[in-house]
Amino acid sequence: MSREYCKIFAAEARAAPGFGEVPEIIPLYLIYRPANNIPYATLEEDLGKPLESYCSREWGCAGAVTASSSSEAMQKCQTFQHWLYQWTNGSFLVTDLAGVDWKMTDVQIATKLRGYQGLKESCFPALLDRFASSHQCNAYCELLGLTPLKGPEVAHPQAKAKGSKSPSAGRKGSQLSPQPQKKGLPSPQGTRKSAASSKAAPQASEPVAAQLLGQPPTQEEGSKAQGMR
């Protein structure tokens, strides 16, 4: 997972003019050895030199290396951390980046929530808050247009969300959804019922009008009147 995130970061970094070399997390292979007592093992490239630490969770806030005194590889590893923290909305972080030149290995992860991206447990959740408060942006963070992790806007990220409006909130009058307007239209069944009742009214009133005029109703009309009663 860390390698895939790093590959996405590398693609965006290479698109930025003047960014230069990009760190790479080397692949880790799982091999199966059926004749061994421990059948499963991991295998990775031998970098040939002692590993140099670029980002460590043991530095903490006070022991973090300043951007001015760090190497280019160290600054870009910190930029990768900043980019990943912002990409995952503060839920995931790669730490303990160590390697030779631009190849990194033996990384660790920190997650905010248990079960993030299928992980079984939460790893160092306090490190995420510590990173946000201690990270110092460098020139490569600015080159990628990353927003600073410090300041009042970052401390209260939900303030802007409360002020945002839904696209449908500004609609008025004729801009509203047409569905509520369908309620005012008469139902076809109601129209048929009213038409049927209007046709039945003259038939029922004919024998009544005949009685009022003193004319005896015919046999057919009388049977209709009795049926109506």
What is the count of helical runs?
A: 8
What would CATH call the architecture of the domain at 1-60 and 68-144?
Answer: Alpha-Beta Barrel
Considering the protein shown, what is the CATH homologous superfamily of the domain at 1-60 and 68-144?
MHCK/EF2 kinase
Number of strands: 8
Roughly what percent helix? 25-40%
Q: What's the main sheet like?
A: 4 strands, mixed
Q: Over all CA atoms, what is the radius of gyration?
A: 38 Å
CATH topology of the domain at 1-60 and 68-144: Protein kinase-like fold
Shape: globular
* N-end to C-end Cα span: 83 Å
Query: What's the CATH first level of the domain at 1-60 and 68-144?
Result: Alpha Beta
| Helix/strand class | alpha+beta
Order of helices and strands: HEEEEHEEEEHHHHHH
Give the integer mean of the pLDDT values. Answer: 72
- Uncertain segments: 60-68, 155-183, 198-205, 208-213
- What is the strand content? 5-15%
Main sheet: which strands, in order across?
Answer: 1-7-6-4
Features:
39% helix; two-stranded antiparallel sheet; alpha+beta; 13% strand; 229 residues; Protein kinase-like fold; globular
